[in-house]
Write a structure and sequence with these properties.
The protein has 382 residues and is α/β, with parallel strands linked by helices. It has helices spanning 9-19, 22-29, 36-43, 84-87, 92-101, 116-122, 137-149, 168-173, 183-190, 193-201, 208-211, 223-230, 237-247, 259-267, 289-300, 315-323, 333-365, and strands at 48-50, 65-67, 70-72, 76-78, 106-109, 127-131, 154-158, 250-256, 272-275, 305-309, 328-331, 378-380. The strands form three sheets. An eight-stranded parallel beta sheet has the order 4-11-10-9-8-7-6-5. It is globular and about 60 Å long.
């Protein structure tokens, strides 16, 4: 199988599985516990149908939108995800370059493998910095100051990960940073030598956002211990309100799922929220973001930008989310499989196909611009 054989999400997933050692593929592919929520994220979009309008004269389609003060050419953005240079040696460099080519926003994680400073210097498109709340308040301040110095406009605090989810696929393979592989996991690396050659031939793996503040090298601290020992489960609304005030700009909470929490986010001055269950990787049994979208948009959509992520596999999924009032839709696994499959050309092919699907579906729906989509386009099945 080659990149030219990839025509949809599932094709990219298969090619990624072919190219990655099993433990790394399963790190991307897996969810928490029984993976019920992970499966529900995509299935949720099947609970409603699109109702097209015809004879609307849709010769041109404008996909541009504005979210958290950032003008983007596509109503989708590349969500911040961790450890990208494990999946392909280009890592976030490929992600950022592909996002720039399509004129959309991309996120860089605290657990990113390329420096946000480097990416901000190279690319003109908006960059979101996603971070976690640490027990060390000085560390939180330092990381925000570093982001501000890099020229980043949008801060995104992840609030659904005060402790790590129970990802049993990783337990079976021994996946961690640094690697502590089981025999089965070692075998999976041995039968995919191309990945190892690329990994060793390029720059040493690092976590530049954290390396300046925390010793993440050697056996000092694995990613799992980072979540259990460094992050602060006592984080509360007062803590976040102080961070919003200190940042003084576009500030987004990622992982909000209830109307009450959405209202609190607006009350403390957040400019955006991402409805998210972390791709089903945290609390298994959690509701899907799409299932919560209408209720939350009705409650706070006039006060705060509402985005969603989780389970996006098709342009029609994007249209359904936009029709319920999402300002933009975040992609995670959608572009990570493409990154793993072929680096920057993989992400560009995946985004090109998704854009073509959205344009085609907008024409078939009779919508010339994103603002013309609304609840009138949808009917839910009961």
């Amino acid at each position: 199988m080659r990149l030219n054989d990839c025509h949809n999400f599932h094709d990219f997933r298969r090619l990624a599985q072919h190219r990655l050692p099993g433990p790394i593929f399963n790190y991307i592919d897996g969810g928490a516990d029984d993976e019920v929520t992970m499966r529900r994220n995509s299935a949720a979009f099947e609970t409603c149908d699109l109702v097209p309008s015809v004879l609307r004269g849709v010769s041109e389609v404008d996909l541009s939108t504005t979210v958290m003060g950032q003008k983007i050419d596509l109503p989708v953005y590349l969500s911040p995800t961790a450890l990208q240079r494990l999946f392909h040696h280009q890592g976030e460099r490929a992600t950022a370059a592909a996002a720039e080519k399509f004129g959309t926003m991309f996120g860089v994680s605290s657990l990113g493998t390329v420096s946000m400073d480097e990416l901000a210097r190279k690319h003109r498109t908006p960059q979101v910095y996603q971070f976690y709340f640490h027990k060390d308040r000085g560390l939180n301040r330092a990381m925000m100051e570093q982001a501000k110095a890099s020229g980043i406009q949008v801060m995104m605090l992840t609030v659904d990960s005060i402790t790590g989810g129970n990802r049993e696929r990783d337990l079976r393979t021994g996946f961690s940073i640094p690697f502590r592989l089981t025999l089965g996991g070692l075998y999976q690396f041995a039968i995919k030598p191309a990945w190892g050659i690329h990994y060793l031939a390029h720059e040493k793996f690092s976590l530049p956002q954290l390396d300046a503040h925390i010793d993440m090298k050697g056996d000092a601290l694995t990613i799992g211990r980072y979540f259990t020992e460094m992050l602060d489960p006592s984080m509360n609304w007062d803590d976040v309100a102080q961070m919003v005030q200190a940042w003084g700009g576009e500030f987004c909470l990622k992982g909000v799922m209830s109307v009450e929490d959405a209202r609190r986010a607006a009350d403390i001055g957040c400019t955006g929220i991402v409805l998210s269950n972390h791709g089903g990787r945290q609390l298994d049994g959690s509701r899907s973001a799409f299932d919560q979208l209408d209720e939350i948009v009705q409650a706070v959509g006039d006060r705060i930008d509402v985005m969603i992520d989780g389970g996006i596999q098709r342009g029609s999924h994007v249209l359904k989310a936009l029709s319920l009032g999402a300002k933009a839709v975040g992609l995670g696994r959608y572009y990570l499989y493409a990154l793993a499959a072929a680096g920057q050309p993989g992400i560009e092919r995946a985004l090109g196909q998704l854009k073509a699907e959205i344009v085609r579906d907008m024409r078939l729906m009779g919508a010339r611009r994103v603002a013309e989509l609304g609840p009138q386009n949808l009917r839910f099945r009961h």
